[in-house]
Protein 1
Amino acid sequence: MLGSALPPSLHSARSSIEAEANLLKRQATSERASQDNQLTGSLGALYAPFQIESDHFPEFELDAAMERDEDEGGPGFRPVYKSRDALEEEVDVEAELSGKQLGPASPRLAKRRRRPKRGNFSGGGLISLIGGTRGKYFWHRALPNKSKHAACPVPNQATRLAACIQPVAIANDDGKSPTVVPSLTLVQSIWEKCCVSYSILATKTVSHTAFKTLDEDPTTNVPTAEASALFAAAGSSNCIQVFVPKTFQQGAKVSKNIAGGGHTFDSGKANPKVVVVEGARPAVVAHEVGHAAGHLGHDNNNTVMKPTMHYNVANSAKVSLGVCAAARTGSVLTKTNGKGDCCMAPK
């Protein structure tokens, strides 16, 4: 109502003032956008000393878009780049911006305490920048590529060893109905704790029905005549051979639990032979592989090398430094690089 009562000259003056205000507002918005683009466009130069997961910085986000630096008298802008790792070390560099904008090649920085936030930055580094057209600005930086992991204890330091495992199934005379080889994944994961890497070869099959019920004598480490014939049929190998009969027979007794379901021959030698019955638990196989790799006895502690005496009762998946030391002595094992580059993780 008041506006309608104003003289035409005042209407014109108010319109001019509103137009000029809108123009100034647009210019200020454009100037701020230009400042923001200049800073974000300089990321490649600023982050050059650091490890970045991808050249388009997928892990970076602006914190609350842009935080205005009103306490510095503005206008300013504060893009905050977040890091996965906690800030490990702050480096404050002091300088005066002297009315110049923050440049990509040689940013002018001034000391002012403000702790950066945590977030998503690869390589252990974190950068938080405050920039603008006047006032003081700061740069906090974490040293890049600093390891997050504690040093390996001396007793746990080891050279990585490796060997292959050759599974051998037993089929009928016509090659049909081979026995099922147990999963060997757990074997790999258990002995990896001792810095021993096992590769698994494709299953080989021996076709001889009689071998499916294999003569076994748990009182000796000498294979029976039938076991020796099975080994000969499979041929020699540079790997640990894992034979899988359907069951064991000792005299008149036929049972999967004879010898606890598994027996190892030529332990610690270049071509050890493991025999485990079909259906044996993977940890039982891991126990026998430990014998093959040089652990000649049993452990009284709760580790994989403590026997269960049952093919279908799993051994513990734990190892100890003592177990690791013994199970790294077999001739079948080879060094991968000759350096103590592995840290054993007994657990």
Note: The CA atoms of residues 55 and 94 lie 29 Å apart.
Protein 2
Amino acid sequence: MTNNNTGWWWGTRVESGGILQISGGNYYNDDRIYNYGTVNISGTGLFQTGYNGTTPYFYNYGSVNVSGGTLDCNYYFYNYDGSTLTQTGGTIDVDRDMYNYDGTGTLVNFAGGTATIGSNSGDYCLRVGYSGSGSGETRISGGTVNTDHMRVYSVGLFNMTGGTLNITDASNFDSGLGNGYGGMDVDGTANVSGGTVNIAADWEGWGGTSTFSGTADINITGHLFNRPSYNSTMNIQGSADVSCGSIPNYQGTINQSGGTIHDNGYYYEQRESYTGGYFYGSGGTIIFAGNSYIDIDHDETYFHNVTISGTYHLGDGSDSYAEELDVNGNFQIDGSFSSSGRNIEVAGNWTNNGSFTHGNNTVILDGTGSQSIGGTNTTTFYNLTITNTSGPGPVSLGHNITVANEMDVSTAGNIGIAPGSYEINFP
């Protein structure tokens, strides 16, 4: 059936093998829609449900393809049992939830155009793999998808390689870190390797795996949050760029092998009530850009490159589990940093372009290759220990330093200093 004119129907059912083609005109529907065949919307066509203020469901058991025109669903949209929804252009507007339900092969594919989920006032959601034993998948490779919030259920799979995802409801920001859902909740698997994600609230791990890789650009106003009582995993790889308001790493693991994390607030591990979160940094850089603290509760946690561009101190001052800061790459201070008396291990270069307060701690240079101490400002250490055994003079100076208490090079070589260049001062 092809419709290019304006018409009104009480209900619509497309049988298996049937095709409803809307390429122009307006197709209004007041009751439920059951699609077991194919619905194609293109050109300037309009397919609208709930024309007279009713709230009909759209049940898709077949294939819906939107390449132009508008699919306007004034209530819920259900994608069931191996069905597909593909958008390459045009507009999709769903007032309430879009469910990408159960069933192997069930697919929602946004590749172009603009889709808005939850355009009605209220707290509505793009739901991926809602229930069942299948593997409902949602993909974004192009276009723009807007939704109040999004949830990837335990059997769900979300893959994003391009386009833009905007999760817009800031009321889902879990400021109290309680049991409320965030902007993006991952029980299943979420992979973002390209495109841009903008979240007005949190990205939360509810026992699933989130991977940011490739050229992914992730902007989170709220928390990058591994929730308590759930063992979630977050991976930052490739050239991914992840910016967030803070990182409450309650329970689970953050693995960074590449990319950049911009933490504009605190970093926190919870060990008193939960087993706590772990951070394993084998590559990439984490930049602490706010005015807050870094609270590490596990001695297994380590970062790769760390840059302090804001004002930070170690520990939140409220627990006895706080561990030392372990940096397996370079450590750079562009802002202000206080150790709060906790030790710091650095395997790469130490660069001080800002302010460092030692708090009577020990800084340990424990690399396996050449290291340097430099920057534009003089660093005053309390205790400085060198355990680098990579060769004679494994640590070079790029600026004067001061050691307020003790310098220990007994277990390794020494500091290599070019004649007449820099000094080590012992007050």
Note: DSSP finds no helices and 50 strands in the chain.
Protein 3
Amino acid sequence: MRILVISNMYPSEAHPVFGAFVQRQVEALRASGVDVDVVANYRKAAGVIINLPKYVRLTWRALRAARRGAYDVIHAHFIYPTSIIGRWSSRLAHTPLVLTAHGNDVDNAATSRLAAPVGKALASATAVVAVSNYLAGRLAEQFPISLEEIDVIDCGVDTDAFRPIQKADARLVADVPADATVVLFAGHLAESKGIGTLLAAHRRLVAEGRSVLLLVAGDGPMAPDVAAASRDPGVKGLVRAVGEVRHEEMAHWYASADVVCVPSHREGFGLVALEAMACGVPVVASDVGGLPEIIVDGVNGRLVPPADPDRLAAALGRILGEGDRDDVASEARRTALEHSISNQTGKLIRLYRSLAAP
């Protein structure tokens, strides 16, 4: 089986975490014996002047590959704007089209000037995939497509790479103090990811007399806010910005934490939470989007209302104060195994086979 994957995000040496979840799915497909070619954008920079030529090149490369490749299925990731490119490629090659929605691309498409052509792409697709039930619902609300027409298949987590590691060993690798109480944030440093809420919650914890080290892994427009917090005497040097961490190194960072925080204001699925859970680390997350589909409050983690620093601080303080978190950790790991990348890749391959010509 030959698949052409088109994506507007894919890692490169310069940007190793840019669309890494698409790359992991591609690698899992190849490991399962599927022949996959990738046409993708590797450039992270955005803006009108950059985006126009970037997407012109992506379109040209996708159309050329589709015309020459004799593929069984074309799979386009992100409905904004890649679904349009996928539709053109599929029509040119007379090949079944799969579209996957990942998160913000749904709302971005619905409010953009490209909403109409995105709607046409969704209507003409042979199959539409959403990474969570929540996101499937958002698609059905925003575009003329029913829930019954949407397959829910998340990207999955590599439960071999993300596994429980002895905390002492992980902290040696990540250079984290052995005796620290650690909260970890990993992700894009943007307001929508709730980093501002977490910084405020952390300040409350420190004001209460708790010596909690907040590690922030990632980059983005709020990086200066994190840097300012790290210099703030009010938090006593207990904020540490570690920058972007390569995906293959993240397991040690997760395992070095006492709790991982995912304080998003909106979240299509919540892969960071799932990776942390696969490492057997408790997660405190916002009760938004796809996160409640993987986190059961009080069973395998904690859920709190979004954008509420007081409630977030209380939840973090509560879970950090629980001396024995083994039950939560084991339930978190069990949940992650249900969402293993091998399970999710199997679902995707079955979908491809149902669409490909006999």
Note: The radius of gyration is 21 Å.
Protein 4
Amino acid sequence: MLSERKWQAVTSSRREFLAGAGVGLLGLAALGIDRASALQEDRPVIESIQVTPLRYPTIGRFKFFEGPPGTPEGRAAVVVRIEDSDGNVGWGQSVPIPKWSYETLESVVTTIRVYLEPVLVGMDPFDLEGIHDAMNANIANGFTTGQPICKAGIDMALHDLICKAKGMSLAELWGRDPGGPVTLSWTLNPKELSETEDLIQQGWERGYRNFNVKVAPDPAYDLELCRILKENVPDGFLWADANGGYDPITAMEVIPKLADIGVDVLEQPVHPNRITAYQEIKKMSALPIAMDEGVISPADLLEFIRLDMLDGMAMKPARVGGLLPAARQLEILEDAELLFLGSGLTDPDISLAASLALYGAFDLQFPAALNGPQFLDGDVLAQPLLPNDDGTIDVPEGPGLGVEVDEEKLAEMAEE
């Protein structure tokens, strides 16, 4: 069990590294540094925050992008550009999915423009702690962090800006090796079981040897889907994700059967507020249980570990409010010796680059369900991020996120 003392030791060592690097991201005071103080000490301040809403064309079927008639087509995203008074620029991306969370393209745009930009302009861009505190003070927390997908775009852009200003990669910022390449997992969410083998073949032809499946609420369908997959790919890593779709009784009935078929891990079997159900499911020890939707902040993760609800976590930097809380959560998992899976929100290019940097630096041991390259078309990068022929993808190299935004491409894809 992870103690508060141990977690304080983890964060203290990280602060010492950052202070030595001359960055001081985690060691600064929790209070925001105002413009007058920053200018007086000859530090740069945030001069502008720009948001560009856009929609990436989609390929194939992914159930979370299906909506009622009249719903805008494509994968919504908001590109965030932050510039400081020294001319340093950082890029980030918020990636809302209304059928997965309560955040939308429209809510991200208005929240940044109306509520966050007026507060953050004039603050020290290197004070990530203060900026997160300012965002949380103006968009309040509920049970956990409020509008984390929106805030993640700001956080990623600041990480990019800070590292580019210092000429360092994200891995160097965290005191780690960059790692990579990252092995990818192919996502299956067939509408009919008869489609399964063709979908497996599509992934196989692109070099993928590991698969993740969307399951729940129908256990009979799910068991047959996993059986077909294991029959076709007996040696691949099989990760099932219920997205909280089972009720507790069904989950406890189906989990041993999924294990018997050969499923390696089950993500988010029931809704995250079913705490006693998670405790009972974990006691079964039939499959490793990873939480996803329920874990947003480091405090959530610490509490759920103490309540003995999980064996690990499916990480999504875009879900947890950005790279600062994401890295902290991975440090908690390391210290508690729990597993972490690398996942995403069908991330487009900029958010994908942030996830790859994180997973490479923290030495991800399992195939990552980063399915943006599988389901999305188009990009806003000078050099697109594409998987290799063997089902892996390289960690971007260079300062910051390691990618360069092509502003002409961005303008062409921008939505009014």
Note: Residues 148-166 form the longest helix (19 residues).
